[in-house]
Write a structure and sequence with these properties.
Largest sheet: 6 strands, mixed
Radius of gyration: 18 Å
Number of domains: 1
CATH architecture: 3-Layer(aba) Sandwich
Number of helices: 7
Low-confidence stretches: 1-12, 24-32
Strand content: 5-15%
Distance between the termini: 50 Å
Oligomer: single chain
Helix content: 25-40%
C-alpha cells in the first residue's frame, strides 16, 4: 500500500513567503525596480547536464549559455519531482506535490492516475491541481501584475483544473503531458489545445506557437508589471524538430 498525504491547501501567507524568496533568489538586480517583470521559462524533460553552460560536450545552446554567463547559475539544488506534474505543482505552489493529492507523479495520457490516490481521483474525474490551491499568479495579481501562461499545463484535464481557474489572465497551450508538434494532438482522438477555456486549432510548430504567444503577451503588457510563464514542450517526446532542423544537425 502506497503512501498518502493530506490533500490540503497552502495558507496565503506561506505562499507569499515563498514568492518573496523566489523573486529575491537570483533576481536581486531586478528588485531594484518597484515591480519587476518576471519571465519564467521551463523546458520539459531537459536535465541541467544537457546544456553547454553545464559542461555538455556536444549540445549547442549558445543563447542559454550567454544567459548563464551574464546571470546566475545554480549548481546546488533539489527537485521535488522528476516528472512533469509534480515539478509544476511544486514550482507554482511552493509546496511538496504530494500535498496537492495525486500529483506526486505525472498525470497519464487522457487523465489517467498511475498509482496511490491518483488512480481513485482519476476515476472520479478529480485528478488535478485544485482551484483552491494558492499559486503564484493569484498572489501576484494582487500586486497589479498581468499573468500569462503559454505552453504545457499538465495539471489536470478537467475544466475545473484549467489555468484560468487558477488566477491566470491568459492561457494558450495544451492540458496534457505532450502533443504532436505539428497537429497538436495528444493522441489521434484527443485534442488538448486551448486558448483560455476554449479548445482551439492552430497551424504551426508547437515551439514557435508558444514563443510567439509569449512575445505577443509581453508586447501587450509592457506598460504594466507582468508575470510570464513560458512552459515549452521541447525537448519532450515526440522528438520532432522544425522543418529546417535537419540542416543544423547534418
Amino acid at each position: 500500500m502506497g503512501r498518502h498525504w493530506p490533500r490540503d491547501t497552502v495558507e496565503e501567507g506561506e505562499l507569499m513567503r515563498f514568492l518573496f524568496a523566489f523573486l529575491t533568489l537570483g533576481l536581486g538586480l531586478l528588485l531594484q525596480a518597484a515591480s519587476p517583470n518576471v519571465v519564467l521559462i521551463l523546458a520539459d524533460d531537459m536535465g541541467y547536464g544537457d546544456l553547454g553552460c553545464y559542461g555538455h560536450p556536444r549540445a549547442k545552446t549558445p543563447v542559454i549559455d550567454r544567459l548563464a554567463k551574464e546571470g546566475v547559475r545554480f549548481t546546488q539544488h533539489y527537485s521535488n519531482g522528476t516528472e512533469c506534474s509534480p515539478t509544476r505543482t511544486a514550482l507554482l505552489t511552493g509546496r511538496y506535490p504530494q500535498r496537492a493529492g495525486g500529483l506526486e507523479c505525472a498525470i497519464g495520457t487522457g487523465n489517467v492516475g498511475r498509482y496511490d490516490d491518483a488512480i481513485a481521483l482519476a476515476a472520479r474525474r478529480q485528478l488535478g491541481l485544485p482551484a483552491k490551491q494558492v499559486v503564484l499568479p493569484g498572489a501576484l495579481k494582487k500586486a497589479g501584475y498581468a499573468c500569462g501562461v503559454f505552453g504545457k499545463w499538465h495539471l489536470g484535464y478537467e475544466p475545473r483544473f484549467n489555468p484560468m481557474e487558477h488566477g491566470w489572465d491568459e492561457f494558450f497551450g495544451y492540458l496534457g503531458g505532450n502533443v504532436h508538434y505539428f497537429n497538436h494532438r495528444e493522441t489521434s482522438e484527443l485534442h488538448v489545445l486551448f486558448r483560455g477555456r476554449l479548445p482551439v486549432h492552430s497551424q504551426g510548430y508547437m515551439t514557435h506557437l508558444i514563443t510567439d504567444s509569449s512575445i505577443d503577451f509581453i508586447e501587450r503588457h509592457k506598460e504594466q508589471p507582468f508575470f510570464l510563464f513560458v512552459s515549452h514542450e521541447s525537448p519532450h517526446f515526440p522528438f520532432q524538430g522544425p522543418k529546417d532542423a535537419k540542416k543544423k544537425v547534418t
